[in-house]
Amino acid sequence: MRATLPFRLARSAAFAAVGVLLAVGAHWFAGGGGPTTGALLVGVLAVTAGAAVAAGRERSPQVIVGLLVGAQAFLHLLFDASASAGAPAHITWHGGLTTQTGMLTAHLTAALLTGLWLSRGEEALWSVLRRIGAGAARCLTMLAALVALLRAGLAGITRPRVRAARGRTRLPRPAWVLRHAVVRRGPPVSPVF
Q1: Which end of the chain is more exposed for a tag (fewer CB within 10 A), N or C?
Q2: So where does this one cross the membrane (predicted)?
Q3: Is the residue at 189 inside a domain?
Q4: Considering the domain boundaries, does residue 27 fall inside one?
Q5: Is residue 193 a part of any domain in this protein?
C-alpha cells in the first residue's frame, strides 16, 4: 500500500516533531547548550523533508530506528555547531564521561527507545489502514453485486404485449393453469449478502 501526499506529510511531521524534541531534550540532558532558533528551524525542516521521502510506504522497525539514529546524529552535529556562544559547556557528564560521550549515549538511548515506540505506532497505523481498505473493498464488492443483481432483474422485465382479440380458443385445463407462470431455467441465484 502506498501513502498519499497528505498522509506522508502528516507522518513525516510527527516523525520530525518526535525526533527534534528528542534531540533537544537529549542534547540538553547530556550537558550541551540549547540550540539557536535558526538551527532548530533548519533541523525541523531537514528531518521533515527526509522523513517525507521515506514515508511513502510502511517501514520496518529496523529502518525506523536507523532513520531516527541518523536524524539524531545530524541534529547533534547541527546543535553542537550552532550552540550559543554564552552557553556554558560542561566538561564531564554523569559518571565521569566526557560531554561528547554522554551526548552520544543519551542520543542513542533515546533514539533506540523512541524508534521502537514509533515502529509500534507505524505497525498499528498501517494495520488500521489495511482493515479500513479491506472493509471498503468488501463494501464495493457488495455494491457491485447489488448493481449487477438489479440490472439482471430489470433486464428480465418486459412490457406486456397487447394482442388483438380474435376468437377465443379454449386451452386444455393444465395449459390454462400454467399460462401466466414465469419460467426461469437454471439454478437459484446465490445470496449476495
Answers
A1: C
A2: 12-30, 36-56, 63-79, 99-118, 139-158
A3: no
A4: yes
A5: no
Placement of cell 529496523 in the chain: 62
Helix (H, G, I), strand (E, B) or coil at 49: helix
Residue 30 in this model has a pLDDT that exceeds 90: no
Rounded distance between C-alpha atoms, residue 164 and residue 189, angstroms: 36
How many angstroms separate the Cα of 163 from the Cα of each of 120, 157, 159, 160, 181?
74, 18, 13, 9, 18
The verdict on residue 92 lying in a domain is no
For residues 50-66, average pLDDT = 86
- Per-residue model confidence as pLDDT tens digits over 128-176: 888 888 888 888 888 888 888 888 776 666 666 666 556 566 555 555 5
Q: Per the structure, how many domains does the chain have?
A: 1
Q: What does pTM read for this prediction?
A: 0.57
Domain that residue 73 falls in? 5-85+103-141
Residue type, 119: S
Angle of the 99-155 helix axis to the 61-81 helix axis, nearest 10 = 140
- Reference 118, options 47, 38, 36; nearest CA is 47
Q: Which three cell numbers stand for residue 9?
A: 506529510
Question: All 3 cell numbers of residue 98?
Answer: 566526557
Cβ burial of 74 (10 Å; 0-12, 13-18, 19+) is middle
Measured between alpha carbons, how far is 94 from 87 in angstroms, rounded to an integer? Answer: 19
Q: How far is Cα 141 from Cα 81, in angstroms, rounded to an integer?
A: 58
